[in-house]
From TrEMBL:
GO MF: acyltransferase activity
Acyltransferase domain residues: 9-353
InterPro entries: Acyl_transf_3_dom (IPR002656), Acyltransferase_3 (IPR050879)
Protein name per UniProt: Acyltransferase
Keyword annotations of the record: Acyltransferase, Membrane, Transferase, Transmembrane, Transmembrane helix
Transmembrane segments: 7-26, 46-68, 88-105, 125-145, 176-197, 217-234, 246-265, 271-292, 304-323, 335-356
Length: 370
């Protein structure tokens, strides 16, 4: 396993995940602004969290495979280089969106959104401190986030997965000590945040439950398990998963289950299994029945991180812009909202990717590898 492996179709998976979140937020914004919407549909309500869940499984799969590969090639994990690679990829856009949400967007009338300014001014330093420490999921649960950057909560979960995961590979004999230390620190930070939050005890319990519901490390770990299966060539498992009849059966079940709108305890864990099946097939199965290797899909997948973080800005701007026109047709209004929101998001992302992210990624690859 000395050579790096290319996984096809995964840019397409990234695009699908980002697009699901975008659709969810368009309808969510329309709902918040008392516009005709379909946000009450279970399929729309679940679409956003499922898009994030797909990102989580994919992230766990790729990060674990890279760590396994590095351990195989070099006999160790260079944790410093690992974190520098992640920082070059994640931090620039993250801080652009976070800092703009605090210091720029509240002053732009076109980006006005109900409650967004209050979610900047209330608990100003507490929230900003968590955000600057790249703990947006803590900030989101404890204090809420301005709508322009609320989607950044999931970046916190991914970062915390990165804080834990490399050390389990670097020091496998101490894995339980590492896991206990990680969760002890996480619990301490959350306890401190809840302790100093002046709300009734029952509200603190609600926030604790919300945090645990979003702290999806087990979903990312499942992606990691699939990477282990692929890396170690567990053909008894993959031969079954790669069968065409199994693919058709699982995809049919996934579509039917999603359209049913059913929700229950363990909902995301079941979808993690289905997403993992999808990821391992499109990336590793030569006989996959789904192909996403199209140039435009691949490019949108490469800029999907920007699609995920920037899209809310384009959605809010589009809705506020169209509000200044008298558009009586609901159908035309929705066509314009969707088309302009998507086009605006892509334009922002292309500019960001070509002139900011791409040069930084090229530098990162040169200095620290992929």
């Amino acid at each position: 396993m000395s050579q790096k492996r290319f996984f096809p179709n995964l840019n397409g998976v990234r695009f699908i995940a980002a697009f699901m979140v975008l659709i969810h937020h368009i309808e969510q914004a329309k709902h918040a602004l008392d516009m005709p919407n379909i946000y009450h549909w279970a399929t729309i309500q679940h679409m956003g969290r499922l898009g994030v869940g797909l990102f989580f499984v994919l992230s766990g799969f790729l990060i674990t495979y890279l760590l396994l590969q590095e351990k195989s090639r070099h006999g160790q994990i260079a944790a410093g280089s690992f974190y520098l690679r992640r920082a070059f990829r994640i931090w620039p856009i993250y801080f652009i969106v976070i800092l703009s949400s605090y210091f720029i967007f509240p002053r732009v009338p076109l980006l006005e959104y109900p409650g967004a300014v209050e979610n900047v001014t209330n608990h100003y330093w507490e929230r900003l401190s968590f955000l600057l420490l790249i703990l947006p999921n803590f900030a989101f649960v404890l204090y809420d986030l301005p709508y322009w950057c609320a989607q950044a909560w999931s970046i916190g979960v991914e970062e915390q997965f990165y804080y834990l995961w490399p050390w389990l590979f670097k020091y496998p004999k101490r894995k339980w000590v590492i896991v206990l230390f990680f969760f002890a620190v996480t619990a301490l930070v959350l306890w401190a945040g809840l302790y100093f939050l002046e709300i009734p005890p029952e509200k603190k319990v609600e926030k604790l439950v919300t945090f645990l519901g979003q702290f999806r490390l087990q979903v990312m770990a499942f992606g990691g398990l699939l990477a282990w299966v692929v890396f170690h060539n567990k053909t008894k498992i993959t031969n079954f998963l790669f069968r065409r009849d199994v693919q058709y059966a699982v995809y049919a079940f996934t579509i039917a289950f999603y359209l049913s709108g059913v929700h229950f305890f363990g909902f995301m864990e079941l979808y993690a299994l289905l997403f993992g099946f999808f990821i391992i097939n499109v990336s590793c199965n030569p006989a996959t029945v789904i192909h996403l290797e199209h140039k435009w899909v691949s490019y949108l997948g490469r800029i999907s991180y920007g699609l995920y973080l920037y899209h809310v800005i384009a959605v809010v701007a589009t809705i506020n812009l169209l509000a200044s026109f008298e558009i009586k047709s609901v159908l035309l209004h929705n066509i314009l909202i969707y088309s302009l929101s998507i086009a605006g998001t892509i334009l922002i992302c292309v500019l960001s990717y070509e002139y900011l992210e791409k040069p930084l990624l090229a530098y990162k690859d040169k200095k620290f590898g992929r």
